[in-house]
Write a structure and sequence with these properties.
There is one protein chain. α2 packs parallel to α4. The protein has one domain (about 15-270): Spore Coat Polysaccharide Biosynthesis Protein SpsA, Chain A. With about 280 residues, the protein is of the alpha/beta class. It has 11 helices and 7 strands. About 35% of the residues are buried. It has a 7-stranded mixed beta sheet, with helices on both faces. Magnesium ion (MG) binds near residues 121, 123, 125 and 234.
Amino acid sequence: MPSPPGLPFPRHPFVGPVDSLPETLWREIDNLVPPSLSILLPALNEEHGVEAVMKRIPRSTLKRNGLSFCVYLLDGRSTDRTRAVATKLGAEVFVQTGHGKGSAFREFVPKIKEDFTILLDSDGTYPPEAIPELVEALGDESPVVLGSRLRGSIGEGAMSGPNYVGNLLLSRFASFLFATPISDVCSGMWAFVSDRLKSLGLTANGFDLEADIFAECALRRIPILEIPIRYDRRIGEPKLRLKEGFRIAFALLKKRLRSSAGPTVQKRAFWSRWFGPARESV
Ligand SMILES: Nc1nc2c(ncn2[C@@H]2O[C@H](COP(=O)(O)OP(=O)(O)OP(=O)(O)O)[C@@H](O)[C@H]2O)c(=O)[nH]1
Ligand SMILES: [Mg+2]
């Protein structure tokens, strides 16, 4: 027998008197199961970064908040000690079969068992200390939470001038294209209610992952709550090149055009948003 919506585990097909337990009692039993969190760390040759990030995860705060959690390294077939370091520090390692950050994330999402999910880079740029705040902000009204660097603070040397302008322009472009405001579309720190995450039709393979998450949420009218975060200088070698900015802009445009050529309901919504309500044919 499936559990009622919102309850974390399926009921056992008990027979006899147990089966007739009142609904309220089932709810009380379910409330005793602590909510769970999966912390996803995509990594490609980040042996130093992953160590710093994992050591900074505020384990005692998470436990105090009643969250059970598991750390998963989403490894892009690193050739350094990334997997060994993560395993030593207690992460479960998942090695992707495809190429790119987006593809690693998409391969792993269907395997998520935990109620909530948090995604952050393993290069020490995003603050693991902010995980509890982002997860606490999740709820029915805010199933997706974004850690915004551009509304938060940026450490010295963490983001070059051209990179800052690029992030700002991409965020403005994304907001305009999807008629949905977002301050930092390329941020690598997101939190999700896992079921809502699984419902997104993500298609990104590389660094366009975050733009893809935003586009999918906008198209499905899933609200994104923004929380300002701090962004620090990266540990280790960057993998991102400047041309990725153009690739991300192109991916956003492609997704927007495809969606307006999609099912009739979506098409109507698109045209009526720009040109007023469509006339119904009789
Ligand atoms: N699994 C996996 N992770 C990757 C891959 N490429 C990059 N990553 C990870 O994705 C995260 C973001 O990559 P970065 O190179 O830091 O890119 P960025 O944060 O956009 O740019 P920087 O400003 O250089 O930090 C890092 O934790 C990388 O290790 C990949 O092909 N597979
Ligand atoms: Mg980075």
